[in-house]
Specification:
Oligomer: heterodimer
Helix content of chain A: 40-55%
Structural class of chain A: mainly alpha
Largest interface: A-B, 30 and 36 residues
CATH architecture of the largest domain in chain B: Alpha-Beta Complex
Strand content of chain B: 5-15%
Structural class of chain B: alpha/beta
Number of helices of chain B: 14
Order of helices and strands of chain A: HH
Number of domains of chain B: 2
Number of strands of chain B: 15
Strand content of chain A: under 5%
Strand order of the largest sheet of chain B: 1-3-2-6-8-7-14-15-11-9-10
Distance between the termini of chain B: 25 Å
Number of helices of chain A: 2
Distance between the termini of chain A: 35 Å
Number of domains of chain A: 1
Shape of chain A: extended
Chain lengths: ~60, ~475
């Protein structure tokens, strides 16, 4: 994962994409939470399980 | 027997007294409501009382006893439920103001229906972090639940109201929910018993969702027998919950007293002995010694498991609230709002990676149970922390309080293991830390037997606040 990715730009773009209204003043706290989430996600992303591994939740019709 | 003498008693003792005609459910209810009115303002555990329903349920129990009929195994037992459970005629607020706009629930959550159907008397609804997204029950709309052992400290969360009500002796039994530790963390820091059965064991129908692939229901109580009693009443298939196991479950109460001599007990090492207060280690080692457990095992990749649980939670949680995040985000509790927004924005690749890691991790942890039946671990790394405090110092590190409380619970809910938390008081320490007794999937009985054994030796016991 690219650890240098521009969170400020990402958050602004995603807010627009998802239709979540966000002022300039509100953005820093979301960026902070996004940074925390990204740091934890990085731990998950660097793990490489076998390609044929099923994800955990299994849908049962 | 006076009703007042039953305040603070276990559900088992109350039900025996009511069924035996020694006490009336209605008298006990009056005494319970009087105690709640006297004590609740200082701990803010109950956010609403269901007096009319409680009076009707208690009167029904008394009428059945008078008629020589059996009102059920929870006869006259007052109980409360986290405000995440549907209660017929009440709005399921989930600790929010947004849900005030929802209609009242048209029926009880399945497990509430089963508790009341067994003679339980529902007295009220309990405080929680908004939408269950927290470990401290600091709720900006309804105030914080306060720890009965120290009113300046958190009762844990997100089922903090449930734990505080039981610890303060307001009710002997309460329901909580546990997605990342929300039964186990408050049970730990309030010094009571908590029980999170296997994922899919107890119905979640009629319970407002947090993160569906991790959500569990379960009881908090003042004895291990009461945990089993509540479980036995609530267990069983439920077509209303797609996750609920269709195979019938065995009752636990009758078999939980069996000798634990043959139970292979291991002590968690590595991650579960790092970044914690000395008291948490003492809890773990005291219990291990009492049980004669000497073998230490390491749960692999626990830190990554916690990270995966965080990622899955924030993304699944956000998906529940997407419409309100768009239209009225100012109405969310500021303590959770920005985490939900971040979850809404997280790339799908993070989520699928976390779900794939989860499967890998499950297989590795289940392999550990080939050589042991239960694993002991601390429930929280520390005692309850002062309310509204942002950071804490642990092992020389500055860590965020609200996230750190779940350090030892999150890696385990990720794979749905059944876990009992028992209080293990340490001499000279005012604030509690609990012990997790972790069993293999569907082996609740192993965890409960060990919990009962610790209770019988006096190692696990409830200390009066």
């Amino acid at each position: 994962m690219n650890e240098e990715f521009d969170l400020d730009r990402y958050v602004a773009l995603m807010a627009e994409t998802l239709g979540i209204p966000m002022t300039e003043a509100e953005r820093p706290e979301v960026i902070l939470q996004m940074r925390r989430t990204a740091d934890l996600a990085a731990q998950v992303m660097e793990f490489e399980p076998p390609q044929d591994l099923e994800p955990a939740p299994v849908f049962k019709p | 027997m006076s009703a007042e003498s039953l305040l603070g008693a276990t559900a088992t003792d109350i039900a025996a007294a009511v069924r035996g005609g020694e006490a009336r459910a209605s008298d006990l209810l009056d005494a319970t409501l009087a105690r709640i009115e006297a004590v609740n303002p200082s701990i803010n555990a109950f956010t609403a009382l269901t007096k009319d329903r409680a009076r009707a349920e208690a009167a029904k129990v008394d009428a059945m006893v008078a008629a020589g009929k059996d009102p059920g195994p929870l006869a006259g037992v007052p109980y409360g439920v986290k405000n995440l459970y549907d209660v017929e005629g009440e709005v399921t607020l989930a600790g929010s103001i947004i849900n005030r706009d929802n209609p009242p629930a048209s029926r009880d959550a399945t497990v509430v229906q089963r508790l009341s159907g067994a003679g339980g008397v529902l007295v009220g609804l309990l405080n929680m972090d908004e939408y269950a997204y927290g470990f401290t029950t600091e709720n900006s709309h309804y105030g914080a639940a306060r720890n009965p052992h120290d009113l300046e400290r958190s009762a844990g969360g997100s089922s903090g109201g449930s734990a505080a009500a039981v610890a303060a002796g307001l009710v002997p039994l309460a329901l909580g929910t546990d997605t990342n530790g929300s039964i186990r963390v408050p049970a730990s820091v309030c010094g009571i018993h908590g029980f999170k059965p296997t994922y899919g064991r107890l119905s979640r129908a009629g319970v407002f969702p947090f993160a569906a692939s991790l959500d569990h229901t379960g009881p908090l109580a003042r004895s291990t027998a009461d945990l089993a009693l509540a479980y036995d009443v609530m267990r069983g298939p439920d077509p209303r919950d797609p996750v609920c196991r269709t195979k019938p479950s065995d009752a636990l109460l009758e078999d939980m007293g069996d000798n634990v001599g043959a139970t292979r007990i291991a002590i968690s090492g590595g991650y579960f002995r790092e970044t914690l207060e000395d008291q948490a280690l003492t809890v773990l080692d005291t219990a291990a010694q009492a049980l004669g457990a000497t073998r230490t095992i390491e749960i692999p990749e626990a830190a990554r498991a916690r990270a995966a649980a965080f990622v899955i939670t924030t993304i699944e949680g956000a998906s529940v609230h997407m419409a309100n995040l768009r239209s009225r985000k100012q109405d969310f509790d500021p303590l959770i709002r920005d985490r939900l927004i971040a979850g809404a924005m997280a790339p799908a690749a993070w989520y699928t990676a976390a779900q794939r890691f989860r499967r890998w991790y499950r297989d590795r942890v289940l392999a550990l149970f080939e050589d042991c039946d239960v694993i002991l671990a601390p429930a929280t790394p520390c005692v309850p922390q002062p309310l509204w405090q942002e950071m804490m110092s642990l092992d020389g590190q500055q860590l965020p309080v609200r996230a750190t409380m779940g350090r030892f619970t999150q890696p385990l809910t990720l794979i749905g293991l059944p876990i009992v938390v028992v209080p293990v008081p340490v001499a000279g320490q005012r604030h509690p830390i609990g012990l997790q007794i972790i069993a293999a999937p569907w082996r609740e009985i192993d965890a409960l037997r060990v919990a009962r054994a610790l209770e019988e030796t006096g190692v696990a016991t409830i200390k009066a606040p």
